[in-house]
Design a protein that fits this description.
The protein has one domain. Helix content is about 80%, strand content about 0%. The longest helix has 23 residues. Keywords: Membrane, Transmembrane, Transmembrane helix.
């Protein structure tokens, strides 16, 4: 695995957003902001992948 990918701030943002989304859905029962956060996290993951391949 690319070490630059693991040090990417976009990867950190993606992980935080996905965990936040799961946290909003599970204990609080807020599906719309939870899924929005998960989708944004997946978008940040795609950005992290694209930025480290260039």
């Amino acid at each position: 695995m690319n070490s630059e990918f693991l040090r990417s701030p976009w990867l950190l943002l993606a992980v935080i957003l996905v965990v936040l989304g799961a946290f909003l859905i599970a204990p609080f029962g807020l599906p719309i902001p939870g899924w929005a956060s998960i989708v944004l996290g997946i978008g940040a993951l795609v950005v992290a992948l694209l930025r480290t391949r260039v």
